[in-house]
Automatic annotation (TrEMBL):
Family matches, as Pfam families: Entericidin (PF08085)
Domain of life: Bacteria
GO biological process, one term: response to toxic substance
Signal peptide: 1-21
Natural source organism: Nitrosomonas eutropha (strain DSM 101675 / C91 / Nm57)
Record family assignment: Belongs to the EcnA/EcnB lipoprotein family.
GO CC list: membrane
InterPro entries reported for this sequence: Entericidin
Keyword field: Cell membrane, Lipoprotein, Membrane, Palmitate, Signal
Name by which UniProt lists this protein: Entericidin EcnAB
Amino acid sequence: MVMKTLFALSLLLIITAQLTACNTMQGFGKDVQRGGEAIERTAK
């Protein structure tokens, strides 16, 4: 039980840190879009 709770809290912390790094959900969307565009350019 303790391991499940610790895992869930760790996962939540990681996700929160990632979203905070992008400042907003809109920023996160732009980051994902730029990543996709970079992959497309590389594939061409």
